[in-house]
Amino acid sequence: MGKRVLITGGGSGIGKAMAETFAADGARVLVTDMDQVALDGCPGSWLKMTGDASDPEHMRAVFARISDEWGGIDVVCSNAGIAGPTALVEDVDIEDFRRCIAVNLEGAFLAAKYAAPMMKAQKSGVILITSSNAGINGFPNRSPYASAKWAEIGLMKTLAMELGPYGIRANAIAPGCVEGPRIDGVIEREAGAKGTTPELIRAGYEAGVSMRSFVTAQDVANMAVFLASEGARLVSGQVIPVDGHTENPDPKV
Questions:
Q1: Are strands 75-78 and 125-130 parallel, antiparallel or unpaired?
Q2: Which of 95, 192, 215, 239 is deepest in the core (most CB within 10 A)?
Q3: Domain 4-177+217-242: top CATH class
Q4: What average pLDDT does the segment 84-89 reach?
Q5: Could you give the residue ranges of the DSSP H alpha helices within the chain?
Q6: Could you count the other beta carbons within 10 Å of the beta carbon of residue 97?
Q7: What is the CA radius of gyration of the chain?
Q8: Residue 250: its pLDDT value, please?
Q9: What's the pTM?
């Protein structure tokens, strides 16, 4: 049988692309998402659960099902996340900050917390966290998101240290701007905050990338499948950007 793979936030975007790519590689997949409509649009062959990745009870139930259905887990893709508010730090509401941290960081923590005992018992496994190039460079007007994504990298490096002796690897993928509705919304909100147009914001983002291009969800999914493969058997504790090389995280046009 193929790998047993969990993808949180797997109903759309990067998460769904990951699930599709792992499934095409022969894996069994379980996807979680808060969006029931998105899950309803996923293939019937996938296991699906609706819930919040930052809710301990939900994640406990997810891993109980994994234990019952599969008896173990090979790959956990902690991908669930939200963009958080777009505003100067002094204008960010503390509750919005906390929610962004909870979904992104606490969700990754809970996935690792419940995966670790299973993976230790089998002395193998891969944990992949979807961070961001905002977790490497920072991101003006996005302090909650950048804070969460930097923290995810600290979590990942600690997991690599704690779990490495058990044959378990942990890495973070740091996408740049990923084509799709989510980045479109970010661009629109930033344009509003700066009093300019979405077209100029998009052009500025592209100008700050060496390859002058956004990436796709498939680009990120391809990296996830590679990092979970035997070809990456000694790749652990690493942050792998998939961003076309970000030169300037806050380009001006």
A1: parallel
A2: 215
A3: alpha beta
A4: 93
A5: 13-24, 36-40, 56-70, 94-101, 107-122, 134-137, 143-163, 181-194, 198-207, 217-227
A6: 18
A7: 18
A8: 67
A9: 0.92
